[in-house]
Amino acid sequence: WAKAAGRGRWAVYDPERSARDIARSALVAGLPAALDRGEFVVHYQPIVALLEGTMLAVEALVRWEHPELGLIGPDRFIGLAEETGLIVSLGEWVLRQACHDAERWRREFPEAQLVVSVNLAARQADDPAIVSTVADALATSGLPAGLLQLELTESAVMGSAGEPLRSLHQLAALGVRLAVDDFGTGYSNLAYLRRLPIHCLKLAGPFVEGIRADGTDVAADHRDERIVDALVRLAHALELWVTAEAVETAVQAERLRALRCDTGQGRYFGAPAPADSITARLRAREVRR
Ligand code: C2E
Ligand code: MG
Ligand code: MG
Ligand code: MG
After folding, report:
1. Of the candidates 101, 132, 133, 131, which has an alpha carbon nearest to the alpha carbon of residue 116?
2. Of 34, 54, 74, 247, which is most buried with the most CB atoms under 10 A?
3. pLDDT one-digit tens code per residue, 225-275
């Protein structure tokens, strides 16, 4: 038995829960030092044109090379970094690294016009300094603004005040592309699409998952496919690009192509991998020409 904080109530001691809490606080405590020690790495995942099969962009996805725990995925620490505010400096580090890598690719493979897509946490997007941070990351790296895309979830787009963020207009004015990440899983009203300079919608994985490998829908009534169909039409009516996330099979890629989805991302086209593997892919394509 353990005394619950404050109220004088008693709670059942749950060893599993407290082990989890200890692991969690150990991770939180380690985050700032890990950033100083350079333990974070950026992996990149191809975003591929469904018709031509060319790699148009890559998404920057951060990982933690933990000295004891090995490679840790962002699902285990991004939430913690958001809670503690460290996401602002971690996110800025990812942004600068991604711009640097993208500029290297641009110099070596100018024809590819490869866009780098960087996730922006709500807390970063809500910070008025974000515009100068992005401008500086572009200036320092030399990357043209048009080759940078920023991904925000629907809730990040709306900001803490529940109003579409003003900074998004300023970011768009810099010339960067803006994408709505995990589109369809938030619960914001769609009015922001009318008012904001958005360039791309990224359809959330679960809709794509609903398109099963054998081409039938999980619910057998093709409901997810119909949702994808409707969302692609919505995007195109607004002259936005659409990227389907979590494409895992050839059948899914084929169906998405038939539904006129523009680009796909997922293990079928390549898992997130270190920058070198993107360089190798760009090189291989050049040789084939
Ligand atoms: P996200 O932005 O929606 O990124 C897509 C996630 O889908 C990635 O998870 C990617 O590895 C995963 N994925 C790739 N291919 C497949 C597939 O075929 N099937 C399925 N089911 N999933 C696939 P990851 O790398 O674990 O990242 C998770 C989330 O962490 C990201 O979701 C993003 O929200 C966040 N994140 C990652 N890096 C950063 C960052 O630098 N800054 C911020 N703010 N968030 C980040
Ligand atoms: Mg993951
Ligand atoms: Mg993303
Ligand atoms: Mg996503």
Report:
1. 101
2. 247
3. 899 999 999 999 999 999 999 999 999 999 999 999 999 999 999 999 999
Q: How far is the CA of 122 from the centre of ligand 4 (A)?
A: 14
Distance 181 CA to ligand 3 centre (A): 5
Place of tokens 């490679």: 71
Q: How far is the CA of 60 from the centre of ligand 2 (A)?
A: 13
178 membership: H or E segment, kind and range: strand 177-183
Identity of residue 262: D
Residue identifier of the C-alpha nearest atom 24 of ligand 1: 74
Please, which pLDDT band fits residue 15 given cuts at 50, 70 and 90?
confident
